[in-house]
Amino acid sequence: QVQLQESGPGLVKPSQTLSLTCTVSGGSISSGDYYWSWIRQPPGKGLEWIGYIYYSGSTYYNPSLKSRVTISVDTSKNQFSLKLSSVTAADTAVYYCARSIGGMDVWGQGTTVTVSS
Amino acid sequence: DIQMTQSPSSLSASVGDRVTITCRASQGISNYLAWYQQKPGKVPKLLIYAASTLQSGVPSRFSGSGSGTDFTLTISSLQPEDVATYYCQKYNSAPFTFGPGTKVDIK
Predict the structure, then answer these.
(1) Domain segments of chain B: what residues?
(2) What is the DSSP string of A57-90?
(3) Separation in Å, CA of A101 to nearest CA in chain B
(4) pLDDT tens, A59-115?
(5) Residues of A with Cβ-Cβ distance to B48 under 8 angstroms
(6) Which chain B residues touch A110 with a CB distance below 8 Å?
(7) Among A8, A37, B73, B105, which one is most buried in terms of CB atoms within 10 A?
(8) Cross-strand partners of B5
(9) Burial of B24 by CB count in 10 Å (0-12 exposed, 13-18 middle, 19+ buried)?
């Protein structure tokens, strides 16, 4: 069965770029049936959808983050990645990757990213 | 962009009670709506997609209904393990916005 695992630094300095990778196992990211999304959840708050990428490379970003977000895919490694630039304390959150075909049926365990100097 | 709202923001009910959560979209989204359950400290779990289709393995006490702009999630008989925050999400088109969540606990 498909599993997702986020990886990346847990601490990022203000104004720097947050970089995370989601590794997909048990299935191919190139299957063409799914969108691959990033979602985040600030401490004590709700879920915020960041954006998605299709295996072909097409993307869509949340308009509220669009100017700072880049999502990319590496089909050879079965991974997709998130970059969020110019981070501030407001970007401190648990970041999840997820597979979606309509609803998001498979999620990673989440990784906590703290923005602090 | 389409906004998603949920009501109530929190509720407290007794074991065995019927619980209903409402989700409203600011524009019609047909039946492109999902519901998630997130227990404290855990990863969100897909409960329902296409407004009313139960995800595999989800207990039958959960059900969803609605189309267009108004949707409901119903727990027919609340169980202690249902203590969680419940989120709706639209996916008719991006952005795939989540509702603000409804926190459910036991009275």
Answers:
(1) 4-106
(2) S-EEE-TTTTTTEEEEEETTTTEEEEEE-S--GG
(3) 9
(4) 999 999 999 999 999 999 999 999 999 999 999 999 999 999 879 999 999 999 999
(5) 103
(6) 43
(7) B73
(8) B24
(9) middle
Q: How far is B44 from chain A (nearest CA, A)?
A: 8
Tell whether the model's pLDDT for residue A32 goes beyond 80: no
Any chain B CB within 8 A of the CB of A105?
Answer: yes
Residue B70: other Cβ atoms inside 10 A: 12
Widest distance between CA atoms in chain A: 41
Strands laid side by side in the B70-75 sheet: B4-7, B19-25, B70-75, B62-67
Q: Which residue of B has its CA nearest to A37?
A: B96
How far apart, in whole angstroms, are the C-alpha atoms of residue B31 and residue B29? 6
Cβ <8 Å between B101 and A48: no
Nearest to A63 among B36, B95, B101 (CB): B95
Do β-strands A111-115 and A11-12 pair in parallel, antiparallel, or remain unpaired? parallel
